[in-house]
Write a structure and sequence with these properties.
The chain is α+β, with helices and mostly antiparallel strands and 138 residues long. It has helices at 2-14, 23-31, 75-80, 99-107; strands at 35-42, 45-55, 58-66, 90-95, 111-120, 125-132. It has a single domain (1-132), classed as Gcn5-related N-acetyltransferase (GNAT) (Aminopeptidase). Strand 3, helix 3 and strand 4 (90-95) form a beta-alpha-beta unit.
């Protein structure tokens, strides 16, 4: 699957050779009927993506990544605007040390909800659980 390979390349670049997802996981995620993907392009080159999983009564942002040379240019924020089409509460987890991502999420209306201890591996780190209310939940 060409799209899965392109997504893997973005993750591998954004995470400096340490993609948290392998190709099989990406292929399975792309084929799930409960998941939606949104893409950012420069010309015809895929440079970023956002993925969400629709659950009963809520949405989970499962992944967002932008190639490193395109980071800091508002592409992540543009991808996040796709979330506003959903009228559901949206949840996500982010590494406690990832202050840039947390700032982006806060600017999009997310608020910290809880800490998940030792959620991430390689390296082991806490996750900050964040939530954005749906339009009708405010």
């Amino acid at each position: 699957m060409q799209k899965a390979q392109s997504i893997y390349a973005i993750l591998d670049d954004a995470y400096q050779g340490q993609s948290p997802w392998n190709l099989k996981q990406i292929e399975a995620d792309l084929s799930s009927p409960n998941n939606d993907y949104f893409f950012a392009y420069d010309q015809e080159q895929l440079i970023g993506f956002l993925s969400v999983q629709q659950l009963v009564g809520e949405l989970e942002l499962t992944n967002i990544a932008v190639k490193s040379r395109y980071q800091g240019k508002g592409i992540g924020a543009q991808l996040m605007t796709h979330l506003f089409d959903y009228d559901l509460p949206i949840f996500l987890e982010v590494r406690a040390s990832n202050s840039a991502a947390q700032a982006l999420y806060k600017s999009c209306g997310f608020a910290a909800l809880a800490i998940r201890k030792n959620y991430y591996h390689n390296p082991v780190e806490d996750a900050v659980v964040m939530k954005k209310e749906g339009r009708n939940d405010r």
